[in-house]
Design brief:
- It contains nine helices and twelve strands.
- It is an alpha/beta fold and about 325 residues long.
- It folds into two domains: about 140 residues, Rossmann fold (3-Layer(aba) Sandwich); about 150 residues, 3-Layer(aba) Sandwich (Rossmann fold).
- Helix 3 packs across helix 6 and helix 4 packs parallel to helix 5.
- The chain is globular.
Amino acid sequence: MSAPLTVWALSDGRAGMRNQALGLAEAVGRVRDAEIAEKTVRIAPPWDRLPRALWGDPFSRLAPDSDPFAAPWPDILIACGRRTIPFSLALRERCFTVQTQDPRTDPSRFGLVVPPHHDGIGGPDVFAIHGSPNRLTEARLAADAAALRPALPALPEPLAAVLIGGPSSAYRMTPGTVAEIARRLEAAAEAGFGLLVTFSRRTPPEAEAQLRERLARLPAWVWDGEPVGGLDNPYFGLLGLANRVFVTEESANMVTEAAFTGRPVFLLRLEGGAPKWRRFHAALAERGVLRPDAALREDWSYPPLRETDRAAKAVLAAYDARKRADG
């Protein structure tokens, strides 16, 4: 039998980046026997504040607490985030490199680029997907849901997961949008839903405080950031228990994860937007994930979004093709 593939999942450690790289690596491991190692790059000052073009050798710019990089090199490097790009480029002669998101450089400099469709990137070295890679599996959703349920207070059913993000380069979380989110959640409670709420690290403190005050009067459980039900983070458990998902519209990661469930998804609007985000939301509406004019009690289903598994197969096909070409 052939030896398992070695796969590195590389990011700067931020949750959104880490989950994309590690999620795609784990999906590769579900298709083919693989040993996965997570690598985190931390750049030393002052280089962390300077453009990457000035770094020179990126390995010489690593902070002391960064993960080490040394042979034996992996068969496949899966990286996410702009700070990982110099390392992917430096290692492209040593392993098959996969970059998620838009690398903002020629995709042919990597073995494969896996961006979201809405970024509009194409080419022979590109495999675009709807949304972003994630770590969800049906088994994990079910296991985390089973662990979380006994720890929850009694709530009306059906249950609705509420995923609150924050401002981004394209969206603003203003007091007005926060008030409208609160109104939507109050309407969901009036329609008979119990609410399971989690905030993001990106949620502004004042917005979180405003929403917590309104939620205190509703049949809602709001995660306080502490382990619960044996879970360090109940996020997957919330998705596993939910009959509906409410999610702020600015996060491709959270919207994609909501679409993994196959259950109705409602967007919570923020101010702003951009054409690529409208393309993303329109594509999900075409797939049946979103129904912008649906009533809160309206139920529907659609084929759950399984883009991470589809991307993993594309990664392995491109890797195998490269191996054959190299002899």
